[in-house]
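hey so i finally got around to running both of the ones u sent me last week. sorry it took forever, my laptop kept dying halfway thru and i had to restart like 3 times lol. anyway pasting them below in the order u listed, first the sequence line then the structure token line for each. didnt double check formatting much so if smth looks off just lmk and ill redo it

first one:
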Amino acid sequence: MDTNYSPNGDTLVLAGLPDLVLFPGMVIPVSADQAGSAAALQEAARQGRSLAVVLQREGRTGQALDDLHAIGTEARLLRYVTAPDGKTHTAVLQGIGRVRLLAEAGPGSVRVERLADPAGPGNTELEARMHRLREQALEALRLIGQAPPELIASLQGLEEPGALADTVAALIDVTLPQKQEILETLALGARLDRVLWHLAYRLEVLRLSADIGRQTRETMEGRQREFMLREQLKTIQKELGEGDEQGPEVAALREKLQAAGMPEETEKQAMRELRRLERMPEGSGEAGMVRSYLETLSELPWKLGEAAPIDIAKARAVLEDEHHGLEKIKRRILEFLAVRKLNPEGRSPILCFVGPPGVGKTSLGQSIAHALDRPFVRVSLGGVHDEAEIRGHRRTYVGALPGNIIQGIRRAGARDGVMLLDEIDKLGGGGFQGDPASAMLEVLDPEQNSTFRDAYLGVPFDLSRVLFIATANQLDTIPGPLRDRMEIVQLSGYTAEEKQAIARRYLVPRQLKQNGLSVEQASLPEDTLTRIVEDYTREAGVRGLEREIGAVLRSAAMRVAEGEATPIPLPPEALSTILGPSRFDPEVAGRSAMPGVVTGLAWTPVGGSILFVESTKVPGNGRLILTGQLGDVMKESVQAALTLVKGRATALGIDPAVFERSDIHVHVPAGATPKDGPSAGVAMFLSLSSLLLGRAVEPAVAMTGEVSLRGLVLPVGGIREKVTAAARAGITTVMLPARNKRDWDDIPASVRAKLRFVWLETVDDALAETLPREAVPA
């Protein structure tokens, strides 16, 4: 106890706190970060003295009496802890009784007057107030729930009116000024009345909240609890008379759905979802999903519009104007359109254009749409590996969308448009996400696609009037069942003359426009175009050719922009400066005839090409060495060719012992490029025969064909592409299997005029044609 005690009061450590009103009898933790209050707690802990805990006046932060309310609470310090940072001080205080501040009694101390409540129960009015206060406090605890049993027992055991009022005041949720007002109310009757008033207000709030919760639970009928807040909001709005009415947005959506012309089943589904939307809160996530679904349904072309009549003459003119060459393809398209004209309700076949890149597959689909005067939409299937990309996602998933087919129909805005399924051969394989190629079976089956069911829509949609056209670079990667649903139309590469005509007719005008040039400012002479085609591009299509033409015209555009006089000359001699040195030399002209080296013909997804087969022998023990990244089929062709040579060694004049004392090495250059297929059998046989006979095959002679162990030359595919590549490379003689004469009409007439053709029945025909009688010196 401090020695400054006087008869008029005791001296206590003064602790002014900004956010705490401590009632007598309460035990609460206190956190003090202000310098004054922290110092008071430290002083009380050091001397073991009691504190006068007083609420600071609003806007004040000091510890002077003017900064504090006049009445506070004497408190005993039960525990004091300082945090490791040295800035935060935490204490546990127990309220003892009310005190009135009298005067300062030294630094950090204050002289107080203790204000005690009368002991024992009071009159009947106080008893009645106590009974009412205790009942309301217990009811409030029941409404709040999770109240400790000890707290309920403590309230029931309080007999002093002042202690009961202070305990309840500490428990209820009132502001600090209201709590200070209760603390300063010394008369017991007035204090009980004040606490009763505040408790009655809080109790009414708790009752209303309980009523809202009960009504919400009845409305929910077992729904998930996560919707509780939304339903409570609806109930509150209902109590306040602010319930939502059907907005103009829902009414407009209803009109769109009714005008969409849906089938009866689909319209019932749409109206059912619309009624659900009306019952949902406007801002809920589920309402947004339903609204997006209904908007998708309303925007789909359910009604079949009036189709324009098919004009075959117009279609022929459009195809001739937009595409050079491709006569067989154009004829097949016109036949296709003629059948559609005569039988509009018939199930027409689904065309699949197969050919190298850049030969005009996609533009053919656009031309068909142009000829039919129907909307055109392109759906890219390259790299699609999820079945949901075709069939759509179920609406249970966040961010669900219709599949690419329905989205394409929605973009086209018509149910009878032209849909191009681009790169159908590059669909991803089946996995845990499903097989998109299998999902395409229903889309492309005329017997099934009239009731195509997208997973997002959940209702059937008629695709039978859509004109599907597919494109692919190769057939091998298209699954058999899917390929069976399409009619394959092969597109081959262009000849040099066709490329030059396409460049003059389409590519040069397009590049002039893209580079901001006119014909008067720059033009490409015919010999310059020829040079670009022959020396700077080697492809089946014309994409690379257009890029090179663009590069030449960009150089002219720069010269025009610099103010050079027009027209800008672009002779063939300028190409080496603009495009660099020639990228492709004549592959055959620069090669000398050597034993063991022959020229073969190959087919690739980007067109035909020539390849060289080289053989040599070294001392060894009869091994066969194969290099050049050959596939299994080509390796077997080499082994079959070697067996043929061994079997005919005596007839050919080859010493059979050479196979035992030599290793034979067969190499196909361009080793970084994988090569496979049986069509190099003739080339392998002639390469080995040439090597072992010591006679050279003329480099300007190229060959293709598969061989059997009986020496027969079997037919192969890709004749048009291979022969075109031979003419492009400077070959003069081409040896083909005799059974490939059926492909004669597919070879362009301009190519046939450049080459001499030799038809092979057996490998003996190839030997008689290629190997000269005199040996060429090594």
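and the second one:
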Amino acid sequence: MRAVLMAGGSGTRLRPLTCDLPKPMVPILNRPIAEHIVNLLKRNGITEVIATLFYLPDVMRNYFSDGRDFGVQMTYAVEEDQPLGTAGCVKNIADLLTETFLVISGDSVTDFDLKAAIEYHKQKGSKATLVLTRVPNPIEFGVVITDDEGRIKRFLEKPSTSEIFSDTVNTGTYILEPEVLDYLPANEESDFSKDLFPLLLEKGEPMFGYVADGYWCDVGHLEAYREAQYDALHRKVVVDYAYPETSDDVWIGDNTQIDPTVQIHPPVMIGNNCRIGPRTVLEPGTVIGDNVTIGSDADLKRPIVWNGAIVGDEVHLRACSIARGARVDRRSHVLEGAVIGPLSTVGEEAQISPGVRVWPSKQIESGATLNINLIWGNTAQRNLFGQRGVAGLANIDITPEFAVKLGAAYGSTLKQGSHVTVSRDQRSISRMVSRSLIAGLMSVGINIQNLEATAIPVARSVLAQMGVAGGIHVRLHPDRPDYVLIEFFDEHGIDIPKGKEKKIEGAYFKEDLRRSPIHEIGTVAYPTGVVSTYTTAFEKHVNVDAVTNSQAKIVIDYLYAVSGAVLPQILGKFDCDAVVLNASLRQMALSNDEREVMLSQLGQVVQALRATFGAQVSANGEQLILVDEVGTCIRGEVLTALMSHMMLTTHPRGTIVVPVHTSGAIEHIARRHDGHVIRTKANPTALMEACQTNPNVVLGGSGEMGFIFPELHPGFDAMFCIAKLIELLSLQQRSLEQVWSELPRMAYRMQTLRCPWTVKGALMRYLVEENPPERLELIDGVKILGDNPDDWILVLPDAGEPLVHIYGNSQSREWLDSTLDKYQQHVQNFIEKEQGIIKETVSL
């Protein structure tokens, strides 16, 4: 059998280690990853290897040559003009693959029994067999769902936390029959997971998943790179060691000189031709390459030191990576997770902070403290975007230098000369961050339409009319007053999709930033009439006569936000009697307790004035809480039901779009009005997209997130919601209290449990496997249906925190209480069991 070793990757998430090295040639225990794979193939009786190359192909060819020295026959296929993708590069050599063959990724460390996988493939009569493994946190990988017979039923490519229905993931190792390549186009980029396998599934070809026992690590980022080394040193994976074992768990190469006073605490690996000076301490997990010189009194705790590096006297290295030929001078400190690129120099008594990356051939001055990446970077992260935009602690995570680079990364994904809007709330921190974003955008040739301080609904609504490529809004996070939230909009004002977020992250992490010459630097303009443009659209979609003749008296609490400057102008045109509270601007964010006090005060004012209703506007104009005429707060699920009922009363047979966890009362309301309900994933982007792509949507969102009126603009808009409420109450000649009394009564509860990230995937798989398919809905999380249509339990992992939410819905309070408590205990027991397994594994 022949094996195809896919070795074309550039390893962008391993930068700066891979600036001059393809990822498969990155060393693990002083041998390239590709050599460990070749050894694995050889142990499984596979000695004919075809390597597909693209990035720096000569590095691998020069190392392996014809493969004779490694006990195999190596041939190479180079993608000359463009990368063809994982499947395209194999299609490119289809004439060499005339019988069953194996494909293996060149960037993972494993000791799988490939013979067993091949035998399984043959027994099943499979056309394509994917070698799978179980991982505790599958969010970074492609999840594969199989039935009891092992037949593949579904693929999820790098799912969100709430889409993890299994913890069996694609390891990038496949056993294929040659005829499956007929499904692929020639000389075109294609991918196994995204293109070929879904097509085979659609065509009904026999395709199976083999769940392999053993070790597997996808060396996809720097943390995984270090962990693979430590695991191999601790014998968690079967590998061939490059040097003899001179004592228990200590491997030392030839011609290496170690002073007798050196302390070596196993496991440790030291390469050929090394020199280690007096009183140096090598802690467990230390890996030292060939031709490395280490001075006296150095303290090495689990560093990965590549060939040819020089480490001075009294240097401290802590779980870091020191690349080929780098130099760390006397008394310097390189701390956890830091990377020193090839041929770089760290001066005497310098300190490299945790997670900092230094690119190749750089010089750090003596005595310097480096706490950002050198070249123009910040502390390395694995993801920028969360559930909603980019968020972090104000002036700690979200700093001016971070924002400059983020702006440049976003701008580098757009065409040079494009225009984008930038807007913000009124806070000084938001002004600082938005100016930094603008600087970054200008540096890559993007022109700015600076909307300055304005409400988010205004910023979204003008985007489409301005003909820009997108927009950015900066504000304090609505749920975290110490956090800044940076949101990115597409050309229509919708939050950008995940694919666009990944492009921005890619440009940010691999520093793939465009540099514009002086004459192409972007410009900044300050458009006028932005609020009037919003007001015109606002008036167009409100029944002005109904609002004007409503004789409504309303009280609005703006919580000292910039939206307070917009809505009063509009309501003034409608002759509304609006009493405004807290409309001045304030720099400090309000705590939740302060908001609740102000909400109570709002209710007292509404009662005292005998107003029609009150509204507290938050989240820079996106969200609101209502207060009815007797001072009772209306929020959350009740607010969602109330708004849906009022909109469908005026627009029967309309469509309502709500998140998956919304109370089942919505379906009852829709049936009253011959309407339709669409449930989406529990994130703002999904709601916005569904509102735009489905016909006849009259309302979207929820009391928790805010409400969308698609005819106005694609985002949430509390200001328009207030005007719409005045209109609907006038047309329907009812009060909020009367509308509330008409709502269906539904038992609904939610509970939240702590759930480690490493357990979420296994929990979702467990719930899917424990319940029959006809009782499951997998829109977002796992919804388990009861015997009655209104009875369901939803287990939904939190996208941003180590939490899991359990929602319950029923017309029977008894059923809900007993079932929700049962599932809470069920989930809690599973989490505790899995944590116990993980702790036991770690201790072993």
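quick thing i noticed on the 2nd:
The first strand starts at residue 2 and ends at 6.
anyway thats it, ttyl
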